[in-house]
Every structure is written in C-alpha cells, then in structure tokens.
Amino acid sequence: MSDKILETTLEVLKEDAEGILADWIEQADEDGAKRIDLFSEKEERDQAASLLRSFRLGVRDASKDGEFDLQDEHWADLRGILSEITHERVERGVLPGEMAALILALKTPLFERLTEKLESDPERLIEEVLLLSKAIDAFAIYSNEVFIAEREQVIERQRDEMMELSTPVVELWDKVLTLPLIGTLDSLRAQEVMESLLQAIVERQAEVVIVDITGVKTVDTQVAQHLLRTAAAVRLMGARCIISGISPKIAQAMVELGVDVGEVRTRSSLRSALMDALTSVGVAIRPINDDKRNAK
Amino acid sequence: MNAAAIYAVEGVLLVSITSDITDTDIIDLQEALSKRIADTECRGVVVDISALEIVDTFVGRVLAQLTSVARLLDAETYVVGMRPAVAMTLVELGMYLPENHTALTLSHALDKMRQSGLIDGLRRG
After folding, report:
1. Where is the STAS domain (chain B) (predicted)?
2. How many Å lie between the alpha carbon of B84 and the closest alpha carbon of chain A?
C-alpha cells in the first residue's frame, strides 16, 4: 500500500476541478437528481462547487495524515457544508433519494479520470477507487441522516403544537368540567392532560369531571392505565371522575385486557355522563313548556 | 407541636398541616389526633393539606394510616385541599389512598359529611 492514500484523486481534483464539476452536474442531471423547478442553474452549481471544494480539502488532509477515517476532523468541514445544503434542500422539498443521487453522481466523473491516470497501475487504481467510493457512500448516508433529523424536528414541533391544541378543559356547568380526548394518548400527552385537568379543577372549584374518550381511537393497557391514573388523581383532589364515550368495542377490549376500572364510573355516552354529573351537583335538564317557547 | 394543629370545627376535628412539617411532627400528630378522636367521640376528621407542596411515600402512608386509625375509632377522614402537583405525585407513587374520602375544600367536606349524616343535622344553617 502506498504511503499517500488517495494521492492520485487529489491530483485529479486539483488539476481539473472545473471539468469534474461540470461532469458531475451533468451526471446528476442524467440520474434525475437535478431539480430545475426548485433550484436555479447557478444555485445548483454553487452548491456543487462548495461541496467539491471541501471534499478536496478533506481528501488533501486525509492523504497528508496517511489515515483514512471518516470521523476525522478533516471531513468536519465537508460535513458542515453537507448538512447546510441538505437543510436548504429539505426546506424546498427535495426528496432524500434525490439528494443521495446527487452525491453519488460524483463517482462517475472522478472514476473516469482516475482510470485514465492510473491505467498503468491497476492495483493502485482499485485501491483508490475503493476508498473514494467508500467516502462518497458515507457522505450520501450522512446527508440522508441529516434529512431524517430535519424531518424529526418537524414532527417534534408539530407534536408540541398538537399537544397545546389537544387538552381543552371545558366548563359545562357550574362545578362540572369536561375534557374531550381526541387521537392517541401517549405518556407525554397523558401527563399534560392530567396537569391541565387538575389545574382546572382548582380554578373552577369543580366537583365532577367528565373525561370523554369518544375520539380516542384505540384503548390498550397503557391508555387505560393513563385514564385510571387521571381518575385517581381527580379523586385525590376531591372531585369525581366519570369516563364517558366507551364504545361497546372498547368495553370488550378493556375486559379482554383485564383492565379493572375499580370505583371509577364509566358511561357509554357523554349524554348519560352529563345527566349523571348534573344530578350529582343538583341540576336537571328538562323541556320548557310550550307557552314559554311561543312567547319568545 | 406547631407544624400541625388540631381544631374542633362544627363537630369535626380539623387538622391543618403546614408545609414545613417534619416526619416526627407527623408521628406526633398521629398520636395526638387519635387521642382527640377518642376523647371527643367525634365522627368526622378533615385533614387540610393545602399548604403541603411536597409529598413522599412517608406522608402518603401516614395519611392512609391516620384514616385507618380514625376508622377504628368510628370516624371518617376527609383529605381536602390537595394541590394538583401533590395529587400527581401520589398517583405516580402508586398511592391512591383508597380508604380516604376527599373533597376540594373544607366546606365541601362539611357538606358531604352532613349528607352522609356524620355531623349533627341540627347544626346546619
């Protein structure tokens, strides 16, 4: 093995940077990685040029060092630029596959030039191609990781926003609160729900709380556990908790799971829970008689 | 014993716990309270923990014990004024206090006791 790894690659990159850049962009275009609708010709070129430049610097430092390790500091610059460009592309709606194709397209122009240079030394050629290919693959994977991280951030943000929207505690009547739950109930949300519910009990001096799970898609043991804990906390506060909106299906599922609701009251509909709640605070709903209605 | 005081209010014993209560105070309280229940033959105890900001398993257990002791002496215990954070902690610790009655405030507890006949109905109004 030669002392200076990727020496020829570095030479090629130095000698014909412009040519490689042009070929690269052309190759990317052929591979379908170019998005004319999202990026102008110039932007595309600038991004590719800065990637290529830091790639060359990385190769240079790595070949000086004599060791090839993608975690090295030599490649930090490239990683920075790569994540910057990836970030920009995510925002404009480039697909992760396209981004990877763009990076992988760099192989063709580099390999072509290496083959020309090292015609007489096939062993060396294979060695360099192997390393180079490894490096480029690694950066394609890295850009993919950046992509995923960006997406995860978006999801995280949306979840936070959803969390704020999804715990409305409504006062139905004096001393009667209701909390309509919609969607899924994971631990984080259950905590949030419990906090806002208990806070509301103190603020409104509520005596009865109806937790309506009509909008909860599935009830597994964990969700049931969260519900029962919420009910227990409500009881500790000195209010009563009614869980309503338990569909026949959910009732069966809960029995199958062996969930014991204990003393917590359950009702099939919000309607019957409301009747129950109003009765216990001494209020009744009844129809007004016709004379009164006509008078209005 | 300053951290927890026992008052006789409307035929029930009101125990008010302050935030700086220590473990020994709680044990003293348990003793004093059981004595008072036996002496006065009252049938209701209200434990006001609205000043309590932090609970641990010890406090939770003592609350449950107070209730059990009171029940043996034929008195029902209401825990009132629990803060949301305290309720969440107790649930988190798995202490659901199933023996205790609970109410939002002292007046809620008195109402409930009247309804269940623990307090003399003549005192009302």
Report:
1. 2-113
2. 5
**B104: closest chain A residue by CA:** A238
Residue B90 near chain A (CB below 8 Å)? yes
Give the rounded percent of residues in chain A with a pLDDT score beyond 90: 19
In a domain, A294, yes or no: no
Q: Which two tokens stand for residue B19?
A: 């935030």
Q: How far apart are the first and last CA of chain A?
A: 99
Summarize the confidence of residues B52-72 as an average pLDDT.
Answer: 86
Q: Looking at the predicted structure, is the pLDDT value of residue A289 above 90?
A: no
Beta carbons of A152 and A170 less than 8 angstroms apart: no
CA angle, B68 then B102 then B84, to 5°: 120
User: Model's pTM, two decimal places?
Assistant: 0.62
Three-class secondary structure of residue A146 per DSSP: helix
Q: What's residue B6's pLDDT?
A: 86
Helix A7-15 vs helix A41-65: angle between axes, to the nearest 10 degrees? 150
A205 and A153 co-located in one domain: no
CB atoms B102 and A237 under 8 Å: yes
Give yes or no: residues A215 and A136 share one domain.
no
Q: How far is CA A168 from CA A39, A118, A162, A278, in A?
A: 43, 70, 11, 20
* B91 inside 8 A of chain A by CB: yes
ipTM confidence score: 0.82
User: What single-letter amino acid sits at A245?
Assistant: G
Tokens for B45, please give them: 């105890």
Check CB contact under 8 Å for A194 and B88. Answer: yes
- Range of A174's domain? 170-280
Phi, psi of A293 (to 5 degrees): -65, -40
Give chain B's domain count. 1
CB pairs under 8 A between A and B: 55
